[in-house]
Every structure is written in C-alpha cells, then in structure tokens.
Amino acid sequence: MDFRKWTEKLWYTYLTGKEEEVRQALEAIDPDCVIVGTGAHEYYIGRDNFLPALRGEMMERKDIAFRFRDFWCEELKAGTDSVLVYGGIYIWWESESKDQIIDMDSRFSVLFRKKEGAWKVVHIHQSIPYRDQMEGEYYPKALLKRVQEVQDIADKMTELAQRDSLTGAYNYRAFRRIWESRGRENSWIFLLDLDEFKKINDTLGHMAGNRVLKKIVDILHASVRNHDVVCRMGGDEFLLLCGDLNGQDSAEGLARRILRMIHEGALEDMGDLWPTISMGITEVREGDSMELALERADKALYRVKRTKKGSYSCE
C-alpha cells in the first residue's frame, strides 16, 4: 500500500473536497483518532469530537478555492502494523477583491495503524511554524523580541503623552491622572510662577526663554524627592505635588529650599534677567478636589505676586 499517496489524497480531500468526498474520506479515520492542530482549541480526542469543527471549517471556507503550491511527504515504518507519514503542505488563495489572502505553509504527521485487518488513521498532527522563529531557536525568540519592541514603543508613547515636550515635566493632564490615582495624605501643592519671565523673551528671544524653562524644571526635580510630581501647567507656571511633609513647617522649609536653589542655579549669561519665582502653597485637605486645592494655592500665589515677588505664601 502506498501510504504517501493515501496521505496526499486525504489532505486534498480535506482542503478542497465536496461534502460527500470528505464523508467518504472520514471512513479511513479511526473512531479513536487523536487530531491536533496549531490553535489552542484544535485538540480532538475521537473522530466524533472533530466532526463539529470540520463542519464549521467547511462552512467558513465554502467560497475559498485553495491552490496547492507544494506538497511533499515521506513514509516511515514504525513496526509491522504502524506507518508514519510526515511532510509539508503549502496552500495559497486570494479573493477577487484582493482584500483576503491565505498564505499557509504547514507541516504534518499522519500515523496509520492496522486494526482488525484494516489500515486506519489513528493520529493526525498539523502545525504552522512561526515564520519569525530563527534557525537554531527552540522557540520564536525573534517574535518575542519584536513583541517586546512593540511594547517598549507603546510604553514610550504613553510616557511621551504624559510629558511636556519642552521641559520633560509632567503635563497638566498627567498631573490630574496622578492626583486621582495616588494617596494624598500629608501632601502639599506648590503653585509656582516665574517673575518677569516676559522680559527674557522680549530681550533675549524665545530660545533663551526656553532654556530658562528647562533649567527651572531641572532645579525643581533636584529640589524634591523622586516620588514627588513636577508639572508644567503651561507658559511659565509650574505645579508640584509633594508628599510626606509633616505640617506647615516642613512645607515652608521645602519652599525656602526651592527659592534658594532657583537663585543659585541662575544661568550665567542671563545676568539680571534671571527670574525669581513666586509660590503659593497649600496642604491637601481631606475631601479636597484638585480644583479646590488649586484654588487655595492660586489665592496664596496671587497674594505673593501682589506684595512680595520671589517669595511664598501659605493658604
């Protein structure tokens, strides 16, 4: 018996045959046959368990005319009553509108066994190899690497969407998200505004102004702890959310530290144009909305801007 020819006919019938031809081919399948495919769900113990999937598959491909671009197989005797046939199938199809393409290069094994004087198929396995799996790899590292690269890009895009493009500080949208997602016990809000910043743009140009804004953010990051939030609200206004401050004395101590570091961090070529910074600070109280806390901080900032720029006030 030519098991290779038999196997080839089985595959052709399975993939291209009419319903009656497939029904006749199934007579060669042993009732206890185990059938395994590529998909996680494609595991069938017994011919009858496979039949519903076969019917569904035939309905799905009723308008598809597979073209066999390649078929090969080899026969291996596994004893006096068993024969293993293994090989590969390459099928292709394209819809008339060219919006659907099937390009499937798969491999298979079929085990025949002689039972009660008749040869039956007792096991079928078909799988589609990962094309991203490189030679010598035992699992598709290239695919995993590509997935990781895509994930890294997605993470980077998410991070960029939360950042001010000029300074790298969090933007206001990200600040709101952080406010809503973290605990705020012993937290204080600092609302900061650069004094006379417009003079820098008018005198030295906007590029110089941009350098100042970036330097200010660098100083703010250096002034607070890693878990504190530095946000650029827009223009020359900044927002800090600082946690674990034990009362007003600690908050005012941090405010003085920021003022000192802003003064000491002046860019040399700015001269007298290097700005001071005014701050309104407030403790985040139980039940505060972000808007309510910012309203108090803004009130304190307005008081400083009106009376003594380059300082701070608590509300």
Keyword list:
single chain, alpha+beta, 315 residues, 5-stranded mixed beta sheet, rod-shaped
Describe this entry's structure for a reader:
By secondary structure, this protein is α+β, with helices and mostly antiparallel strands. It has nine helices and eleven strands. It has helices at residues 3-16, 19-26, 47-60, 141-161, 172-181, 197-204, 206-223, 248-264, 290-307, and strands spanning 29-36, 43-45, 67-77, 82-94, 101-115, 118-127, 188-194, 229-234, 237-242, 277-283, 312-314. Strands 2-1-6-5-4-3 form a six-stranded mixed β-sheet. A five-stranded mixed β-sheet has the order 8-9-7-10-11, with helices on both faces. β10 (277-283), α9 (290-307) and β11 (312-314) form a beta-alpha-beta unit. α6 (197-204) packs antiparallel against α7. The longest helix is centred in the middle third of the chain and has 21 residues, at 141-161. The protein is rod-shaped, with a radius of gyration of 36 Å. The mean pLDDT is 88.
Tally of DSSP β-strands: 11
Helix-strand makeup class: alpha+beta
Please write the string of helix (H) and strand (E) elements.
HHEEHEEEEHHEHHEEHEHE
Unreliable sequence segments: none
- Summarize the amount of helix as a percent range: 40-55%
Query: Could you give a short account of the major beta sheet?
Result: 6 strands, mixed
Strand order of the largest sheet: 2-1-6-5-4-3
Averaged pLDDT: 88
Taking the alpha carbons of the first and last residues, their distance comes to 95 Å
| Total helical elements | 9
- The portion of residues forming beta strands comes to 25-35%
Shape: rod-shaped
Radius of gyration equals 36 Å
